[in-house]
# Entry
Amino acid sequence: MRVVILTEGGGKKGFGHISRCIAISQGFNEKEIIPEVYINGDKSIDRILRGIKYVKFNWFKDKTKTLGLIENTDILIIDSYFIDEAYCKLLAEKVKTPVFIDDYNRINYPEGIVLNGSIGAKKIRYSQNNKIKYLLGTEYQPLRKEFWNAKPVKIKKKIKNILITMGGNDVRNLTPQILEQAIKIFPNENKNVIVTKSYKNIHRIEAQKDGKTIILKDINAKRLIELYKGTDIAVSAAGQTIYELAAFGIPSIIIQTTDNQKNNLTGWTDYNSCIYKEHSVRTLVQKLSIIFLKLKTYSIRRKLSNNLNNCIFERSTKCLIERIINFFENTISYK
# Structure
């Protein structure tokens, strides 16, 4: 079986698409299938793809080369916010089973599979097209292999470790303001701040930190797991990271940093799985200290953790791969 993955990411685009495509690739690896991965990205993607075979290539721009590359492909995974309907159709016509990863019903997709593993996916009004198989909800959320056996953290009576992670580039420059409020409310607790080389505000974060703040740059998945296991509360962008935090049941403040995170934000709130959702920078600064104080209450954190545990499926990646392969096999048999 030949599987090809086309995705994008980098300093300006973020790393969420790459992260979930890594998860999908790892899921196929479990079936002894090695996908070919093509990424439209810059040099910043190299750090998160260590140990993973991929080709850096602008498949979005060079359509002729891309259409040639995917000849004789059984399953094609496409994860992009920029591809249009016409190009989707061209790609779909070249392969046996196209899979389109979608977050907010962005365009009308051709025949194949539409995957939306977000928590709010089932509330999106997708067109009822009988030629499309919809895989919707967190039971199909692609989580990286390191998170497949994640166990919920123990909720302690007192907070000792706070995690701040605002995605691959902190496009809204929120980390310094979040850290400032965290220092005011938790002066004696550990503040771990994750940043990447794509952050333009590292100097501001460095200037803001206190003696209990550690800034972690470009950490790998193994180090991230260790960090999560010791985290009591987190402040996170509402992207792919929140699903990894949820796998560990970490009570979190979720902040919308891009428009495409709106459904994530709404979904977590609907399931009472986050203490606070916010998309206004001004309001965030005003309210964050109040929310931090609220999170000091043990019973609130315990309830949030339990709700998060109910939203994440341990076998989500494996279940996703099984459904894709079954769809492919059934389609071939029917033809």
